[in-house]
Amino acid sequence: MVERVEHWFNRRYGMARHDVYLVRTATGWQVLGRVGGAEGREVLHYFDQEGDARAMLRRMLETVPPELSSWAEMTAYKNRPS
Asked: Do 81 and 26 contact (CB within 8 A), yes or no?
């Protein structure tokens, strides 16, 4: 079971794009950050507790430079399997 709980993106495209995902798995939680679109660099963090994963998600959103951080939640994909 893999469930995408939240997906945020900074309304940019190409190399300036940032995506942050909150994912629930059968064994815990994951926060995936991606820079540069679908082929960009990724970092993945694993958590046992939802609260810890949400704290990381907030930190990842807050660390993007202000000129690139016009965040929008991708609600069209909310709760769809990844």
From this structure: no
